[in-house]
Amino acid sequence: xxxxxxxxxxxxxxxxxxxxxxxxxxxxxxxxxxxxxxxxxxxxxxxxxxxxxxxxxxxxxxxxxxxxxxxxxxxxxxxxxxxxxxxxxxxxxxxxxxxxxxxxxxxxxxxxxxxxxxxxxxxxxxxxxxxxxxxxxxxxxxxxxxxxxxxxxxxxxxxxxxxxxxxxxxxxxxxxxxxxxxxxxxxxxxxxxxxxxxxxxxxxxxxxxxxxxxxxxxxxxxxxxxxxxxxxxxxxxxxxxxxxxxxxxxxxxxxxxxxxxxxxxxxxxxxxxxxxxxxxxxxxxxxxxxx
Length: 291
Ligand SMILES: [Fe+2]
Ligand SMILES: [Fe+2]
What we know:
Layout (H helix, E strand, L loop, with lengths): L2 H12 L9 H12 L17 H8 L4 H21 L3 H28 L15 H29 L4 H30 L6 H26 L4 H4 L10 H16 L11 H15 L5
Helix pairs in contact: 2-5, 2-7, 4-5, 4-6, 6-7, 6-8, 6-10, 10-11
The structure holds fe (ii) ion (FE2) (2 copies).
One fe (ii) ion binds next to helix 4 and helix 5.
């Protein structure tokens, strides 16, 4: 068992068996989820493995590095903006840590790109933040979407041996951090809603619905914009693995479950992406997809 998992179990033991969503115990549990499982790795000292020229070319040609840098930059800024206006000291600490981890993801990418000679196509565009809560909710839903597929793609890359194990291991903590962030986000949403005055709840619900709609729309737009380069759209074929859409969704579901299973079962789980994946798999089955 990892130290992080042991720490999370320690939280479980000290918390009553039934958890009331919106309670102090709930708050302590979802904040401890982030604060107690922090992994202190440092991007500047990551020992990047030497890659064969062919593997290095594969890495360069994945085509989403600029988008990844921009996503991490904006996620870090939006999360920090929420931390800066959060009054509760424990939640503020947890959200600030989330922001730090996003900035660190960007630093990992920058170090990797420099080491392997991947040149960014342009400057990272930082978007202005007018409403920190809205920005955080938007980012949280975006991460739930993206990491659900990233979990599956990461497992494919690992099992197919497309990248050497040393390189996969470097990114393991980054991927696991996104699972923690998703879990933190859905619990923060439920906690925040439960603690809002009844009159302010409709606005919060509307914000959530709008954030969700924006993220769906953005992904449709990104899919069109990137077209041939879109790693998620290409799925397994982008990393040389022959897998059908149903098989891929099954893998994403299993990986999502596996990554979240390390944390306290009383915390709420992200539901939208697993539910959407089940619906898509049913449709594929009824449409005659064999795999
Ligand atoms: Fe991130
Ligand atoms: Fe994240």
